[in-house]
Hints:
The protein is an alpha/beta fold. The protein is 55% helix and 12% strand. The site of thymidine-5'-phosphate (TMP) has 10 residues, from helix 4.
Amino acid sequence: MGIFITFEGPEGSGKSTQVRLLVSWLRTRGVNVLATREPGGTEIGDRIRSLLLSPTTRALTVEAEVLLFSASRAQLVQEVIRPHLEQGGVVVCDRYADSTLAYQGYGRGVDLEVLQTITRFATRGLVPDITFLLDIPVAEGLARKRGNQAEWNRMEQEVVAYHERVRAGYLALAAADPHRWHVLDAREDVATLHARIRHIVAEKLGWSGDEVDPGHSP
Ligand code: TMP
């Protein structure tokens, strides 16, 4: 089995940039790496993604929302992630099941045990080896996101209090499993964050200090 790495964090935490940097660094080192994202990452998943994130999707029940995110995840795990891991490759995923626990569980108040059961079913029990939490105060994350695009998507229009619950949820999940989670301050500059991430991944891959090449910039 290969190594499964996920990135989590609130809106505007810079996950996608760090995913991109990590993936290209691993590729230059000859690692068979696959990058993907949730919701989406498969043809069916991308259709579910546009349904979930479209501002025109109204009156979606929270139960339907959970099941749609989970359906997208089931498709991604079975079609893309698991086959790549079985070949011994590294998978880097921008969001995974912890997003459901944080957003639908802590954020919207869905029972966490129910979500764990649905997630186990959807993923057939596939849990990441490493999860990075790019933590950022809610106001800063939202401001960054707002600067990037004229219109917020449906999720981002939710009230700030909801995002506060999501953030606190992420921190609780990370505290409960410090072996898997690595909490990083997303306010640090891009290169510093990337170096931290590289260091943790290199350790997991069993690479020595020399191979990590700390002087290398992204
Ligand atoms: P992103 O493309 O910026 O990561 O946005 C995806 C949005 O979907 C973000 O607001 C978080 C939300 N989301 C959930 O609410 N639950 C989930 O399980 C996943 C994967 C994402």
